[in-house]
Amino acid sequence: MGKVRITWIKSAIGYSRDQRATLRALGLRRLQQSVEQEDVPTVRGMTEKVRHLVRVEEVQ
Q1: Using an 8 Å Cβ cutoff, are 50 and 25 in contact?
Q2: For the segment 37-46, what is each residue's pLDDT rounded down to a tens digit?
Q3: Phi and psi of 24, rounded to 5°?
């Protein structure tokens, strides 16, 4: 499987606690931070939950 780069682009202030917890579970700690994760269904589901707060890119 490939990898995806997830970048936190919008503040989580005003969003539910579980969405903030999802960002933390993805490995994101601060705004504008990027992490690379394996492209697995679990990670895809997490990014779908916070798609309005993050940008997801395929990594070669």
Answers
A1: no
A2: 999 999 999 9
A3: -65, -40
